[in-house]
Design brief:
Blueprint (H helix, E strand, L loop, with lengths): L1 E4 L4 H13 L4 E4 L7 H6 L7 E3 L6 E2 L1 H10 L12 H28 L8 H21 L14 H16 L4 H4 L1 H11 L2 H4 L11
Parallel strand pairs: 1-2
Antiparallel strand pairs: 1-3, 3-4
Length: about 210
């Protein structure tokens, strides 16, 4: 199977980190997400990455859908999402919060790329406030050495949260560690995992 995406997109990186953590084989094809070519648009009219080209079946897009599909390829004992019951919903709830941090950081980044005269201070302040609230929520949950949904086994909530925090480092500020020191301690060993180290955006040097 082939994953099509940008090396700087946090949505693509969610899938790449998942693939790295689970050991699934894939080919990675880099595209310019801002200038998708006609062949990509034909596969994914949504015009966004990531796109997963399967050996059988239609291409899939949207990172959470792709991860859900990839989970189906694994035996039950290797999956990162609990199969049923309250553990599943708690994990997916936290995954949604972590995804919200990515969304807020991405929206802020896009707004700041506009000409200064057309930037919205309201949008920037709203997204920064959203980031602050999400950091505070995860600061209360974080326990170094344990997954955010409880227990010791990594879930997709942990995986997405790790990507979200490193996206803050990449596009916003590493100063989030000052207001969330426990979360920072939780994240430090995560950032050293091979699946994260091998998928860093080009030229990005993580904070020490």
């Amino acid at each position: 199977m082939k994953l099509i995406g940008s090396e700087t997109s946090p949505y693509v990186r969610k899938v790449r980190v998942y693939l790295g953590e689970t050991g699934l084989d894939y080919e990675f094809a880099v595209v310019d997400a801002w200038k998708p070519d006609p062949s990509l648009l034909a596969m994914a009219p949504i015009g966004k990455v990531p796109v997963l080209v399967r050996e059988q079946g239609e291409p899939l897009y949207e990172s959470n859908l792709i991860i859900d599909y990839l989970e189906s390829l694994l035996p039950a004992e290797r999956r990162l999402v609990p199969p049923e019951g309250e553990p599943r919903w708690q994990m997916l709830r936290l995954q949604a919060l972590a995804s919200g941090m990515i969304d807020a950081t991405a929206t802020r980044t896009v707004e700041l790329r506009k000409p200064e005269a057309t930037q919205s201070a309201v949008v920037i302040a709203r997204e920064e406030g959203r980031i602050e609230r999400l950091l505070a929520a995860f600061e209360k949950l974080a326990q170094p050495g344990r997954c955010v949904a409880g227990g010791e086994r990594m879930s997709t909530a942990d995986l997405v949260l790790g990507v979200a925090l490193q996206y803050l480092d990449f596009r916003f500020t590493p100063d989030w560690r000052k207001s969330a020191p426990t979360l920072a301690a939780w994240f430090a060993p995560m950032a050293r995992r091979p699946a994260y180290a091998r998928t860093l955006p080009p030229g990005f040097v993580p904070p020490a």
